[in-house]
């Protein structure tokens, strides 16, 4: 693909743009270019919605000179060596630069359609559940909790569809008794994963239980299960395009790294239990 052919060119372009020769040891000249001053003006204007005054601009220039002096002296002292923060920041900066240089060709309609078909489940809205729960407190009921649950469930079944006051048969809990039209993730946030996994398997129109949660024991009546319609590509095209772009960008980023990685021989030292370290050379990729 054209995307991957451009990766090699991006590597050489990055080298040409940023791989400046190291300054000579006796080079103590700091040049504040007109372009850098203009960048300072622009950055200031974006932040404060006005151009800097002469004094403010001089302050920006003096700060730039200060940073440059300290930066060069830090490099001379080797303070950039073995610093995880600096390593990580430079690695991120190179990835960002590469991402900007290796631009993606906009996807065709056919590519988006194929991507949507392959990842259709990602765009499917979740099933929603309407249910009633009656809580039984194990701390209050002790060993009789499960037996009480069976007795109360029989009473609830006898009520038929008149379950509006079902909660009165159980114990007090600082939660609702009736939950209309809830997604599994919403239910999980309230009752926990175990309760939710059990609830989504329950058949509607009858009482079930005991169903356990972190709170204790519940009797559950699922009154309605709402299945959403299948996702429609035309309604989701913009989101699909964003997802496609993000995924392809990650692929290019990984390929960019792989191409750079192939230029290195990597030796991983492995410390042995007796203190005599060994070395393992990774094969070329």
Word description of this protein:
The protein is α+β, with helices and mostly antiparallel strands and 285 residues long. It has 3 domains: 2-103, no CATH class; 106-124 and 237-261; 128-226, Chitinase A, domain 3, CATH 3.10.50. 51% of the residues lie in helices and 13% in strands. The protein contains 10 helices and 6 strands. It has helices at 2-18, 34-48, 54-76, 84-101, 109-118, 138-141, 145-159, 184-191, 193-199, 233-261; strands at 128-136, 178-182, 207-212, 217-226, 267-270, 278-281. A 4-stranded antiparallel sheet has the order 2-1-4-3. The two termini are 20 Å apart.
Number of strands: 6
Percent range for helical residues?
40-55%
Q: Mean of the pLDDT scores? A: 86
- Major β-sheet annotation: 4 strands, antiparallel
Computed Rg: 32 Å
Give the amount of beta strand, in percent. Answer: 5-15%
What characteristic shape results from the CA principal axes?
elongated
Give me the side-by-side strand order of the main sheet.
Answer: 2-1-4-3
Terminal CA distance: 20 Å
Key phrases:
single chain, 285 residues, alpha+beta, Chitinase A, domain 3, 3 domains, two-stranded antiparallel ribbon, 10 helices, 51% helix
Task: Characterize this entry briefly.
With 285 residues, the protein is α+β, with helices and mostly antiparallel strands.
How do the helices and strands line up, and which of them pair or pack?
Layout: H1 2-18, H2 34-48, H3 54-76, H4 84-101, H5 109-118, E1 128-136, H6 138-141, H7 145-159, E2 178-182, H8 184-191, H9 193-199, E3 207-212, E4 217-226, H10 233-261, E5 267-270, E6 278-281
Antiparallel strand pairs: 1-2, 1-4, 3-4, 5-6
Helix pairs in contact: 1-10, 5-10, 8-9
């Amino acid at each position: 693909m054209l995307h991957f052919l451009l990766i090699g060119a991006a590597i050489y372009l990055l080298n040409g743009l940023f791989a400046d020769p190291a300054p000579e040891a006796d080079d103590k000249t700091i040049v504040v270019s007109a372009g850098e001053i203009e960048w300072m003006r622009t950055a200031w204007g974006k932040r404060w919605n006005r151009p800097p005054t002469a004094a403010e601009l001089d302050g920006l220039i003096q700060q730039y000179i200060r940073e440059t002096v300290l930066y060069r002296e830090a490099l001379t002292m080797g303070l950039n060596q073995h610093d995880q923060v600096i390593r990580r920041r430079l690695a991120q900066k190179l990835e960002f630069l590469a991402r900007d240089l290796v631009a993606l060709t906009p996807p065709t309609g056919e590519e988006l359609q194929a991507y949507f078909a392959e990842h259709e489940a990602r765009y499917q809205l979740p099933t929603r559940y309407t249910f009633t729960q009656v809580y039984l407190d194990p701390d209050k009921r002790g060993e009789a909790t499960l037996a009480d649950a069976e007795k109360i469930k029989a009473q609830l079944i006898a009520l038929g569809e008149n379950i509006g006051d079902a909660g009165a048969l159980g114990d007090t809990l600082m939660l609702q008794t009736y939950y209309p039209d809830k997604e599994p993730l919403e239910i999980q946030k309230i009752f926990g994963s175990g309760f939710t996994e059990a609830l989504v398997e329950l058949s509607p129109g009858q009482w079930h239980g005991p169903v356990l949660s972190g709170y204790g024991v519940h009797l559950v009546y699922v009154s309605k299960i709402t299945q959403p319609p299948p996702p429609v590509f035309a309604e989701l095209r913009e989101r699909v395009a964003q997802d496609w772009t993000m995924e392809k960008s990650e692929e290019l980023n990984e390929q960019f790294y792989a191409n750079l990685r192939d230029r290195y021989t990597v030796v991983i030292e492995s410390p042995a239990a007796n203190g005599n370290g060994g070395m393992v050379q990774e094969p070329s990729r």
